[in-house]
C-alpha cells in the first residue's frame, strides 16, 4: 500500500517536472533579447592603434613608389653627386619597406632590409665625401685651368700641387710691348712663367739672344736644390753647388777613371743638363732661378706684349721644396721648357743674323764675288729663303738687278761722275764712241 501511494505521488510530480523544464527554457525571442542585453552590458574594447614601426599598406605603397622614383632619377642622372644622393634615398626606401611591415619579419625580408641599409650607408658616405671635396677641394678659374692643362698636367703635377703653387704668392702681371721684366746683373728675386705672348732675352740693345714663348719658365729652375734647401741637407746642397761650379777638370778625370765601369752599366743621361749645355753653347749662360743668382740678360716683353704668372722666389722655392713628388714633376716641366727655348725663335734669329751680315756687306755700295759666295753659303746653312733675302735687299734700298751686278746704281752714278771729272778728255772720247 505504501508502495502504491509513492507511485501515485511520483506520477503526479512528472507533469510538473515537464512543465517546469518547459518553462525554464526561454523562447527564441526572449533568448535574442537576452543576448543583446548581455552584449550591451559588456564593455567595448578600443581598436588598437598601429605601432610606430609598422606602416599601413598605403604608407608602404608610398615608400615603394618614392624608392622607385629615386632609382629612376639616379639611373638618368649625369651628375655624380646627385646620383649618389638618389641612390642612397632609394636604398633607404628599400630598407623602410622591408623593416616597417605590420607583421613579423620573415628571413628574406630581414635580409632585404639589411642589404638596403648597407647600400644606403655606402651611398651617403660617398655623397658626404664628394660634398666635402666640392667645398674644400680644388677650384680653379678658367684661366688657371687652361694654364694647368697646357703646362703642368702632362708632366705629373696634380691639381692640388698646382693649387699649392698658386697659393704661394702667385699673381698675374701684364707687360706692354718692350717693357722691362728683368734687368741684367740684378739679383733674381722672382720666378716668372709666360702665360700669353712672348718675351725676349737681350744682351745688347735690340739684340735678342733667346725667346721665351707661351707656357715656359724664364730662366732655369733647380727643383732638387729647392728640396735640399727646404730639408736643410747640406751634403745635397754642396753637390748641386759643385755641379754648377767650374770643376770641369775634376769631372773629366773622374769620367776617364770610370770609363770602363760606365760602359758596363750605363745610366740614363741627364736630359736637363744636356739641354742646358746646348742653350749655353748657343746663346751663352742661362739665368739660374735660385737664391744668390743674377739675371744674365735683359728680359723684355715681345712685340705684342705678354702676360706673366709671377711668384716671389722664396715662397716658390719653399712650396716646391716641401713636396718631393712636386720636385720631380717640376724637373719635367723645366726639361720641356728648356727644349722649347732651344727651338723657339731659331728661324727668326737666323733671319736677323743674315740681315745684319747683309747690311754690313752692302754698306759701301759694292758687293764682291767673295762676299756673294759667303752670303749664299750662310743662306744655305741657316735655311734663309730667297724671298726673305730679296725682301731684306728691298728694305735696305737694293734691287735684285743691283745685287746681281754687285753695285748700287746711285753708287755707280757717283763713281762715273767722279771719273768724268778726273778724266774729262777720256770721258769725251768715250761719249763720242
Largest sheet: 5 strands, antiparallel
Number of helices: 20
- State the CATH topology of the largest domain: Jelly Rolls
User: What is the name of the CATH class of the largest domain?
Assistant: Mainly Beta
How helix-rich are the residues, as a percent range?
55-70%
Structural summary, described in words:
By secondary structure, the protein is α+β, with helices and mostly antiparallel strands. 63% of the residues lie in helices and 10% in strands. The protein is built from 20 helices and five strands. The chain has helices at residues 2-24, 28-41, 57-76, 80-99, 107-136, 142-151, 159-166, 223-231, 234-243, 248-257, 259-264, 271-283, 313-321, 324-343, 346-361, 369-382, 386-395, 400-405, 409-422, 424-432, and strands at residues 171-175, 180-182, 190-204, 207-212, 298-312. Strands 1, 2, 3, 4 and 5 form a five-stranded antiparallel beta sheet that branches. A hairpin with a 2-residue loop joins strand 3 and strand 4. Helix 8 (223-231) packs antiparallel against helix 14 (324-343). The longest helix is centred in the N-terminal third of the chain and has 30 residues, at 107-136. It is elongated. The protein starts with a helix and ends with a helix. The model is unreliable at 16-25, 245-254 and 264-268 (pLDDT under 50).
Amino acid at each position: 500500500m505504501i508502495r502504491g501511494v509513492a507511485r501515485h505521488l511520483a506520477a503526479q510530480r512528472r507533469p510538473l517536472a515537464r512543465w517546469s523544464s518547459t518553462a525554464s527554457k526561454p523562447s527564441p525571442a526572449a533568448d535574442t533579447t537576452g543576448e543583446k542585453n548581455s552584449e550591451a552590458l559588456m564593455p567595448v574594447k578600443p581598436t588598437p592603434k598601429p605601432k610606430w614601426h609598422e606602416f599601413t599598406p598605403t604608407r608602404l605603397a608610398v615608400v615603394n613608389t618614392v624608392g622607385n622614383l629615386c632609382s629612376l632619377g639616379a639611373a638618368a642622372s649625369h651628375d655624380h653627386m646627385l646620383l649618389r644622393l638618389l641612390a642612397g634615398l632609394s636604398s633607404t626606401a628599400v630598407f623602410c619597406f622591408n623593416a616597417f611591415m605590420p607583421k613579423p619579419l620573415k628571413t628574406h625580408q630581414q635580409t632585404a632590409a639589411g642589404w638596403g641599409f648597407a647600400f644606403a650607408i655606402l651611398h651617403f658616405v660617398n655623397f658626404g665625401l664628394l660634398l666635402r671635396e666640392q667645398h674644400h677641394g680644388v677650384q680653379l678659374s678658367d684661366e688657371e685651368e687652361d694654364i694647368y692643362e697646357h703646362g703642368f698636367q702632362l708632366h705629373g703635377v696634380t691639381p692640388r700641387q698646382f693649387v699649392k703653387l698658386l697659393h704661394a704668392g702667385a699673381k698675374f702681371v701684364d707687360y706692354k710691348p718692350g717693357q722691362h721684366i728683368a734687368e741684367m746683373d740684378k739679383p733674381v728675386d722672382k720666378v716668372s712663367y709666360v702665360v700669353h705672348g712672348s718675351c725676349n732675352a737681350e744682351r745688347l740693345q735690340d739684340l735678342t739672344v733667346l725667346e721665351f714663348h707661351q707656357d715656359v719658365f724664364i730662366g732655369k729652375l733647380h727643383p732638387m736644390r729647392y728640396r735640399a734647401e727646404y730639408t736643410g741637407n747640406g751634403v745635397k746642397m754642396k753637390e748641386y753647388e759643385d755641379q754648377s761650379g767650374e770643376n770641369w777638370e775634376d769631372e773629366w778625370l773622374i769620367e776617364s777613371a770610370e770609363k770602363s765601369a760606365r760602359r758596363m752599366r750605363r745610366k740614363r743621361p741627364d736630359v736637363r743638363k744636356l739641354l742646358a749645355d746646348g742653350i749655353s753653347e748657343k746663346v751663352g749662360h742661362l739665368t739660374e732661378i735660385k737664391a744668390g743668382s743674377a739675371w744674365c740678360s735683359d728680359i723684355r716683353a715681345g712685340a705684342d706684349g705678354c702676360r706673366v704668372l709671377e711668384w716671389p722666389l722664396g715662397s716658390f722655392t719653399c712650396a716646391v721644396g716641401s713636396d718631393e713628388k712636386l720636385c720631380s714633376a717640376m724637373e719635367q716641366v723645366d726639361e720641356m721648357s728648356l727644349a722649347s727655348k732651344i727651338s723657339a725663335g731659331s728661324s727668326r734669329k737666323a733671319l736677323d743674323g743674315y740681315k745684319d751680315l747683309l747690311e754690313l756687306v752692302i754698306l759701301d755700295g759694292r758687293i764682291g764675288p767673295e762676299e756673294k759666295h759667303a752670303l749664299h753659303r750662310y743662306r744655305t746653312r741657316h735655311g734663309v729663303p730667297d724671298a726673305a733675302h730679296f725682301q731684306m735687299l728691298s728694305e735696305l734700298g737694293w734691287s735684285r738687278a743691283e745685287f746681281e751686278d754687285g753695285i748700287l746704281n746711285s753708287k755707280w752714278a757717283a763713281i762715273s761722275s767722279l771719273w768724268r771729272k778726273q778724266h774729262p778728255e777720256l770721258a769725251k772720247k768715250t761719249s763720242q764712241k
